[in-house]
Write a structure and sequence with these properties.
Elements (H helix, E strand, L loop, with lengths): L2 H19 L3 H26 L3 H26 L12 H4 L5
Helix pairs in contact: 1-3, 2-3
């Protein structure tokens, strides 16, 4: 993977973590489902079988998937309505229970 893919990979982790933190997990799962089935699998087949690029084609498709996921999650993170985000009220005793 090149440096652009690594930067998008890091951005993907950061933005996805932020969205998971506010409970926007439905978007993450739907985006992953669509990008993997609509983009990654056909692109991998196209590059490896049709253009006969072999493993190089598979890695190009994978790097492209990482870039698209990073951009998709970044866009969602930027346009997310943070004023409507609500935290869950869980008593401290339930969160920090220690079993000894």
């Amino acid at each position: 993977m090149d440096w652009g893919s690594w930067c998008c990979f890091g951005a993907n982790i950061i933005f996805a973590g932020g969205l998971r933190g506010v409970g926007d997990t439905t978007f993450l799962s739907r985006a992953a489902l669509v990008l993997n089935w609509v983009f990654f699998i056909p692109c991998t087949i196209l590059l490896t079988q049709v253009f006969d690029l072999g493993q190089t084609g598979a890695w190009i498709a994978f790097s492209s998937l990482i870039v698209l996921q990073g951009l998709t999650n970044a866009l969602r993170y930027i346009i997310y309505k943070w004023t409507s985000a609500q935290s869950k009220n869980v008593p401290i005793s339930e969160v920090t229970s220690v079993h000894v």
